[in-house]
Amino acid sequence: MDCEEIRRALGALADGEEARLGRPEVESHLSTCPDCSRAARAIEAERAYFGSLPRPAAPADLPARIRQRLMAPGARLVASLPFLRVVVAAASLLLAVTGGALLLTAGPAPAPPPALTAGRAVDRLMDAIVREGVPRIEVEVNR
Amino acid sequence: MFPRRPGEESLDEKDLIARSRTGDADAFASLMDRYRDRIYRLVWGLLRNTEDAEDVTQEVFIKAFYRLGSFEGGSAFYTWLYRVAVNTAADWRKRWRRRRALSLEDSPTGPEGVEDHAPRPERLAHGRELGVRLAEALDRMPEKFRRILVLRDYEGLTYEEIGQVLHLPKGTVESRLFRARERLREVLEPLL
Q: Does this model's pTM top 0.80?
């Protein structure tokens, strides 16, 4: 019997899922195959390791900290991003249409695809603001 | 493991989601209360570092708040939230790896590294060695293998549930778990 097939079944059986081979077939193979027996012990060790890890609860003040960040002034900018996304998407569409029209009139030209789409750029901006807050812009006024 | 199937959120939860979408922070706080421990535990399992888990859990909920508009109910809310958590933790690790690569220190157990949660010294030395090897192997493993092992063996999700979170067919979940465990087997073999 194919050892790979046995090891696939070993994992599925250990996980309580349906396997292509039944438990008796797998056990019978294990009694004669040291490699697959080691594979079975490796799965046991891995599961025991995850079982031994702590299952911590969230710190009690975590929701308050999140709420505080949601109420921060920068968060209002993030909240406006869905609107910004629509604006950027509309602008992209306009550019694509006008660009396409230009291409049709000017003939084919090598144009590499943009690495960063407008939607993705907004996503990245939002992630950066969520992560680091809105960058502070300081303006010096000379009188 | 998952409390509900797609579209089967309670009326109360649907209402909380709808109100959160309009920017109602109180409604979102109630959603947070329901899921904070599970999301924190999942993130901790993926990062195995308390400080990072706290920061990433905050990011998860803040992202979720602003992205609720993209939650269309095609999957259960909990599945969607899990997906946000898994992706945010992966981004965090990517940034952490980049920072580590740039820094002079190259220790996987450095100040921002994975905490040592191997079995305590009072346990058998052999078991401890296995735990240490496993922790190191998991830390070096490609993200797609590590996350699937955590979802399966730490979170206890079924293959179907993992498929919902990662947007993968059940067969791919099974096959990816097999490959992840084969990698671990290679590392553990000398000790078994």
A: no
Question: Does residue A138 sit at the B interface (CB-CB below 8 Å)?
Answer: no
Question: Is residue B103 domain-shared with residue B19, that is, in the same domain?
Answer: yes
Pairwise CB contact (< 8 Å): B188 & A42: yes
- Which domain range does residue B179 map to? 118-192
Q: Amino acid identity, residue B166?
A: L
Q: In whole angstroms, what is the distance from residue A135 CA to residue A73 CA?
A: 12
Q: Is residue B119 within 8 Å of residue A51, measured between CB atoms?
A: no
Tokens of A47: 């599961």
Q: Tell me if A75 is assigned to some domain.
A: yes
User: Is the same domain home to B108 and B28?
Assistant: yes
User: What ipTM is given for this predicted complex?
Assistant: 0.80
> Is residue A27 within 8 angstroms of chain B, CB to CB?
no
Q: Tell me, yes or no, whether A139 lies in a domain.
A: no
Q: What is the arithmetic mean of pLDDT over A70-78?
A: 66
Below-70 pLDDT ranges, chain B: 1-9, 11, 104-127
Instruction: State pLDDT tens for residues B176-190.
Output: 999 999 999 998 888
DSSP classification of residue A113:
P
Residues of B whose CB is below 8 A from A81: 66
Decide which of B80, B115, B150 is a domain's last residue: B115
Whether the Cβ atoms of residue B56 and residue B84 lie closer than 8 Å to each other: no
CA dist., res. A52 & res. B123, Å (int)? 11
Q: How many domains does chain A have?
A: 2
CATH code, domain carrying B138: 1.10.10.10
The residue of chain A with its CA nearest to that of B131 is A49
Judgement on whether residues B29 and B59 belong to the same structural domain of the protein: yes
What is the rounded distance in angstroms from the CA atom of residue B98 to the CA atom of residue B114?
Answer: 15
Helices (H) and strands (E) in chain A, counts: 7, 0
